[in-house]
């Protein structure tokens, strides 16, 4: 079956526009800027057209010589729309932001080509196309990271990025080779339909998981993400919104296959959960806005891997979309941080909740959760233990909002507001979950039945997140205690994982001039 | 042995600590970005001339303090610097090593200046010896600590408060494993063994490093400079403390930290001892400018003389003024006002403008709605003596605070560890709407009428009248009052720009001028004030109405803030608004030509565009300060490059106002001009870096990229349009219409101000009848204008 997904044209349009910038790589490329914006807008229009096509004509596959190359299904349509939208925002932003830069034209060309490459990966129909997209992203992003090649820090960051990214590519190539031998196909649909897996094929899945860990900068390969602020802000926006999640997108596209391996799923839960807590903890100590955002991304990607590992594929996709939009905006508007920090100080000291208030807030949060979950269960049907566990983790987070309002020093008006916000947040969360299930549930595998391994991981995840959440709510009571001063130093340094990686890769050496 | 080394003779110890304090004073303060003002980066070098400061900063940072010689030479080539300017500059130069004559000067002009290299620090030497990038490792480790220590609200988990910088750092460094991982084994133990006070740590390190008393001062200065904006921020803390009558040791603490590192690096890498001793010896030598420094400073002087010549040609005597003006509009002296003032004056006969510092002389600290914190609204040199507030009624204020606290609670929910996941799942999608909104919405709504600020506490009728009289006299607004007098402060609307406050009014400490203008206008309209003024010798017509306004320097629109007005006043206001509207249109047309990618009718977009890094040019281009009656500059196109201060010496009994002008606005003007100068000629040292990779830190400043050195000063995009410099670095030419003897008398009284002129950080020219008549030479001497090519005989003899 072959057909023509309209979204297949999106990368082509962007690449064509990028090509023109080869001719004008210098400052103020004039009308080419208009062309770049039009190409980005056309990409977005094609993304929208893809959604319409999917709704009207169903799934589409572009085949060449009988081999499926690109496809349009609910997952890829979502990602195409997301990437083309973020691409449009970033191109538009860059055309003003980069004004007058010595290599302005080159930048626009690279950004357009990078967006095109991401668009290829997210609609890939088989592993070789996906790998091609990844390799292109790696090469282009490296050039963007080296936009100021005279900066030694930029060269170090680019080296680190290239090492990790290329390792992911190698891991994917090996995985493909194994799967080709054991399964006889590299097509995503066919791979997803397999049921019997040999131990060798399990190894292939392991390599897929390894690749996703490397691409999403999970522990302990996260170091490069905290260093790519060496490139202009729009690069960070694109990277954090469109590129770093591609490892997760890959897992979702291969969900049917990955879910066949409980071991791989367990590894994802463990690494994802650990990365999430680790990243979130380090984020608390970072005083530079973009660096804090980078740690936040590491944590969020870990959380997304955790969702994948629990088999909550639609939620993982929802997380990718929501995080991308939030993070793109956060980076592009990071110049507001001065104003925001000033605004934080204005209303005076923060009301500190006591242990009793925090306990109350957790009880209240769980009651809220039970109520809202019950309503949505009636509306949306049975909830799996995995979904309920995830909901519990999120409600621990919401409790923090309530706790702030329950502090003794907080006026009643503030309490009402934070409780109201908590309710709205809980409802929004379940509503989006329901929507995610409705949009993507049919094209992704169902949550696996929880066995002993799954239950163990669920209990571990819920209890560790619960513990951290409780500690976080009591934060002002212990954060400035002298005994935690040392802990803070280690946390602020990200437990030195990046320094160790630097030592290993020679990042402490005098950088060679380019 | 350890004891032996740390025990210095008391007198030597005192000398070393004295050198540390002197080095601390050599660092300019950097104000935090939420209320930043321009600071003279050479504040610690005003007791030297530019050539000596050049020699010092070349030694310490490898920086040049003048434009590249090739650029200056091409200005000579192009005739922008004329023969007569070179000649005059050569004659004025008395430094040893100056070119013998014009021929020699022209010959040297063609030779490229030798590259300047800083003396190597221990970290530099250790890096060269081991191949490990110690300066970068230090910068990263120190930067991570400092970002937490100085954080004012970005991170949720900051270090515990109420520790001195040295104690806090010690606690950090004893735990930090990064230096050890990078190869500096035993660093934590080394830190644990350092004395627990900064002073003793400095003394021990000095002794172990073999720093002599003679070498200590510039060696310390160099180490502080290597900390970039961190030491400047600490210097600001000292500045602020001293303004409030306290003291602060953070800056010397930072020096101690840097020294403890060097101590460890020298022990780690003993082979560099010989090279380091050579550095110490070089530090001990006095700072003497080379012939190249002298030549470059001479060329710089010639460029400034060329500008003065051009300016003098425009000042051909005062315009006629007669009868009662229809409108008087007082603007801030800021150079951005000049364009709009000229356009407004062109709207018709009887429209006069005045220039005065944008805080309009009211030394106020303001408490905006929704907070108890006060913000200074006056020049950074001064300390506020009254407070004002915009707090609304009880429940309004309460609602505002609850809203702000809810927003803050939501922000903490977004930022905290586990709740950040819930935040993304529940609210992340809504950012899609924000992305569309911020990408598309391109015109800023005009700000609504904010509540009227009021002075806190009771002011007696006498006090009001006395304050009002002082303000009017300082503005030289003592007669010929128009029926409508506008007091127009300024501010700049922009979005997503960390350096936003640098575009606001410098005389209002990085805030807009709205509060000050409205307070002063209300005071001048107050019947109690009006009743007391005649008794103080000021007779205002009953129909004179004062109205405050705010000039948005991005869009050149003026918003007026009239209080209750009757129909007759409304008519006057309508007319004034019409003039202001038309003047704004002309000003936009003029300014848009300089702004890359700007259309005159769409400047509002630049204010609302979150991707705009050059919303306007700020004070770029500033080069002159003219204090004279308005008629002297009326109608002259000064291209938005001059601070214009209204001053009529004939009204100035006892020259009190002249004293005020020279000690306050002129000094502020020099700070601004030298900040632009420093950020332009030495961007690595005194500039704010590249906006495209700025990473806002702790709400106080920016770093480039991942972290490391805090960057103070103006970003490169604020002085350069990508293809050429927009700010031509020139030291300020101050022109004052007043008798030479009176000016000299003021300078004699104020050593600090005199130093600025004597050492050439500013030029001083006297005007008479609207024309330049004399140039100030150092040592309270003057020479006649136009006569400067002929050198006075005494100077020649001395040469």
UniProtKB/TrEMBL annotation, chain B:
Compartments in which it is found: Cell membrane
Keywords carried by this UniProt record: Cell membrane, Membrane, Metal-binding, Transport, Zinc
Pfam family, one: DabA
Membrane topology of the entry: Peripheral membrane protein
Residues that coordinate or bind Zn(2+): 332, 334, 490, 505
One MF annotation (Gene Ontology) recorded for this entry: zinc ion binding
Cofactor: Zn(2+)
A GO cellular component annotation in the UniProt record: plasma membrane
Family: Belongs to the inorganic carbon transporter (TC 9.A.2) DabA family.
UniProt cross-references to PANTHER family, sorted A to Z: INORGANIC CARBON TRANSPORTER SUBUNIT DABA-RELATED, UPF0753 PROTEIN AQ_863
HAMAP family linked: DabA (MF_01871)
Job of this protein: Part of an energy-coupled inorganic carbon pump.
Subunit-structure text: Forms a complex with DabB.
Descriptive protein name: Probable inorganic carbon transporter subunit DabA
Natural source organism: Devosia oryzisoli
Gene from which the chain derives: dabA
């Amino acid at each position: 079956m072959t057909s023509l997904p309209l979204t297949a044209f999106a990368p082509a349009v962007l690449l064509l526009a990028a090509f023109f910038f080869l001719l004008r790589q210098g400052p103020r490329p004039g009308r080419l800027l208009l062309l770049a914006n039009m190409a980005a807008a056309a990409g977005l229009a094609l993304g929208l057209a893809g959604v319409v096509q999917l709704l009207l004509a169903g799934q589409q596959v572009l085949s060449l010589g009988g081999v499926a190359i690109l496809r349009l299904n609910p997952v890829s349509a979502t990602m195409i729309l997301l990437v083309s939208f973020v691409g449009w925002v970033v191109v538009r932003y860059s055309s003003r932001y980069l004004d007058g830069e010595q290599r302005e034209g080159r930048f626009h060309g690279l950004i357009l080509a990078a967006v095109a490459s991401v668009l290829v990966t997210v609609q890939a129909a088989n592993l070789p196309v996906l790998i091609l997209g990844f390799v292109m992203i790696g090469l282009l992003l490296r050039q963007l990271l080296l936009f100021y090649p005279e900066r030694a820090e930029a060269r170090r960051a680019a080296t680190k990025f290239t090492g990790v990214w290329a390792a992911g590519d190698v891991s994917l190539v090996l995985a493909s080779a194994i799967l080709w031998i054991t399964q006889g196909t590299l097509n995503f649909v066919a791979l997803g339909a397999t049921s019997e897996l040999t131990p060798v094929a399990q190894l292939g899945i392991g390599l897929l998981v390894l690749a996703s860990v490397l691409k999403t900068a999970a522990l302990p390969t996260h170091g490069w993400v905290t260093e790519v602020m060496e490139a202009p802000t729009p690069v960070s926006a694109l990277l954090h919104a469109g590129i770093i999640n591609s490892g997760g997108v890959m897992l979702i596209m291969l969900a049917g296959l990955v879910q066949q391996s409980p071991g791989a799923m367990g590894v994802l839960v463990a690494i994802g959960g650990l990365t999430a807590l680790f990243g979130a903890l380090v984020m608390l100590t970072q005083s530079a806005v973009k660096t804090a955002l980078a740690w936040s991304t590491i944590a969020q990607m870990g959380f997304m891997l955790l969702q994948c590992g629990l088999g909550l594929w639609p939620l993982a996709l929802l997380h990718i979309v929501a995080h991308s939009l939030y993070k793109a905006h956060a980076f592009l508007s990071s110049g507001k941080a001065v104003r925001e920090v000033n605004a934080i100080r204005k209303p005076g000291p923060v009301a500190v909740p006591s242990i009793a208030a925090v306990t109350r807030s957790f009880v209240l949060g769980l009651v809220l959760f039970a109520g809202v979950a019950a309503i949505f269960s009636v509306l949306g049907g049975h909830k799996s233990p995995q979904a309920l566990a995830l909901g519990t983790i999120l409600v621990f987070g919401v409790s923090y909002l309530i706790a702030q309002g329950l502090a003794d020093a907080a006026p009643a008006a503030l309490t009402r507001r934070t409780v109201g916000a908590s309710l709205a947040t809980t409802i929004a969360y379940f509503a989006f979950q329901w929507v995610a299930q409705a949009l993507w549930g049919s094209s992704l595998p169902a949550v696996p039945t929880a066995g002993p391994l799954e239950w163990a991981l669920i209990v571990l995840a819920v209890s560790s997140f619960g513990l951290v959440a409780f500690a976080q709510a009591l934060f002002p009571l212990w954060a400035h205690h002298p005994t935690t001063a040392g802990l803070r130093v280690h946390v602020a340094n990200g437990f030195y994982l990046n320094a160790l990686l630097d030592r290993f890769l020679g990042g402490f050496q005098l950088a060679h001039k380019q | 042995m350890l004891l032996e080394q740390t025990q210095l003779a008391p007198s030597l110890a005192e000398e070393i600590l004295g050198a540390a304090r002197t080095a601390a004073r050599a660092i300019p303060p950097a104000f935090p970005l939420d209320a930043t003002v321009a600071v003279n980066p050479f504040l610690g070098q005003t007791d030297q001339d530019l050539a000596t400061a050049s020699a010092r900063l070349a030694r310490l940072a490898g920086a040049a303090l003048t434009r590249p010689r090739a650029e200056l030479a091409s200005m000579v080539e192009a005739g922008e610097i004329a023969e007569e300017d070179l000649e005059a500059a050569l004659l004025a130069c008395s430094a040893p090593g100056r070119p013998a004559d014009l021929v020699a000067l022209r010959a040297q002009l063609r030779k490229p200046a030798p590259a300047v290299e800083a003396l190597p620090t221990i970290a530099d030497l250790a890096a060269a010896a081991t191949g490990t990038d110690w300066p970068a490792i230090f910068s990263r480790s120190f930067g991570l600590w400092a970002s937490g220590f100085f954080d004012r609200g970005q991170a949720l988990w900051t270090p515990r408060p109420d520790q001195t910088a040295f104690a806090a750092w010690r606690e950090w460094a004893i735990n930090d494993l990064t230096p050890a991982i990078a190869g500096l084994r035993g660093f934590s133990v080394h830190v644990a063994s350092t004395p627990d006070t900064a002073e003793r740590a400095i003394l021990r390190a000095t002794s172990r490093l073999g720093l002599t008393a003679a070498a200590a001062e510039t060696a310390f200065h160099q180490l502080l400079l290597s900390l970039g904006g961190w030491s400047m921020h600490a210097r600001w803390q000292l500045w602020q403390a001293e303004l409030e009558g306290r003291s602060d040791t953070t800056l010397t603490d930072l020096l101690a930290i840097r020294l403890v590192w060097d101590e460890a690096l020298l022990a780690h890498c003993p082979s560099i001892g010989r090279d380091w001793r050579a550095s110490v010896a070089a530090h001990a030598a006095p700072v003497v400018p080379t012939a190249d420094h002298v030549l470059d400073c001479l060329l710089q002087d010639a460029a400034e003389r060329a500008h003065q010549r051009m300016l003098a040609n425009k000042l051909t005597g005062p315009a006629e003024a007669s009868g009662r003006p229809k409108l008087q509009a007082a603007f801030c002296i800021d150079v951005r006002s000049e364009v709009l003032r000229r356009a407004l004056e062109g709207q018709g006969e009887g429209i006069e403008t005045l220039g005065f510092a944008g805080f309009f002389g009211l030394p106020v600290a303001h408490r905006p709605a929704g907070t108890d914190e006060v913000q200074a609204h006056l020049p950074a040199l001064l300390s506020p003596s009254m407070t004002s507030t915009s707090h609304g009624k009880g429940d309004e204020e309460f609602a505002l605070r609850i809203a702000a606290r809810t927003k803050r609670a939501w922000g903490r929910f977004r930022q905290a560890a586990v709740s950040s996941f819930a935040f993304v799942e529940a609210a992340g999608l809504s950012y899609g709407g924000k992305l569309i909104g911020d990408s598309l919405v391109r015109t800023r709504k005009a700000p609504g009428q904010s509540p009227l600020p009021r002075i806190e506490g009771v002011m007696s009728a006498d006090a009001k009248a006395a304050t009002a009289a002082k303000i009017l006299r300082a503005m030289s607004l003592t007669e010929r009052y128009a029926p409508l007098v506008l007091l127009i402060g300024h501010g700049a609307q922009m979005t997503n720009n960390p350096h936003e406050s640098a575009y606001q009014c410098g005389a209002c400490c990085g805030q807009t001028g709205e509060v000050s203008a409205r307070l002063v206008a209300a005071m001048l309209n107050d019947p109690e004030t009006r009743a007391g003024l005649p008794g103080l010798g000021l007779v205002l017509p009953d129909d004179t109405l004062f109205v405050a306004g705010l000039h948005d320097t991005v869009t050149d629109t003026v918003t007026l803030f009239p209080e209750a007005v009757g129909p007759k006043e409304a008519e006057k206001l309508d007319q004034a608004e019409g003039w202001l509207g038309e003047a704004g249109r002309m000003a936009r047309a003029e300014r848009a030509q300089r702004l890359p990618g700007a259309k005159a009718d769409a400047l509002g977009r630049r204010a609302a565009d979150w991707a705009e890094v050059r919303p306007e040019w700020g004070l770029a281009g500033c080069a002159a300060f003219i204090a004279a009656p308005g008629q002297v500059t009326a109608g002259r196109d000064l291209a938005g490059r001059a601070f214009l201060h209204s001053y009529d010496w004939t009204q100035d009994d006892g020259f009190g106002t002249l004293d005020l002008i020279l000690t306050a606005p002129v000094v502020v003007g020099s700070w601004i001009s030298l900040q632009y100068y420093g950020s332009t000629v030495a961007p690595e040292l005194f500039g704010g870096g590249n906006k495209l990779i700025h990473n806002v830190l702790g709400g106080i400043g920016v770093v480039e990229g991942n972290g490391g050195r805090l960057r103070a000063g103006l970003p490169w995009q604020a002085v350069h349009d990508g293809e050429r410099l927009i700010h031509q670095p020139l030291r300020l030419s101050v022109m004052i219409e007043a008798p030479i003897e009176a000016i000299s008398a003021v300078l004699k009284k104020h050593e600090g101000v005199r130093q600025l002129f004597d050492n050439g950080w500013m030029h001083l020219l006297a005007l008479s009848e609207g024309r330049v008549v004399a140039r100030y030479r150092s040592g309270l001497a003057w020479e006649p204008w136009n006569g400067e090519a002929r050198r006075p005989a005494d100077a020649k003899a001395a040469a």
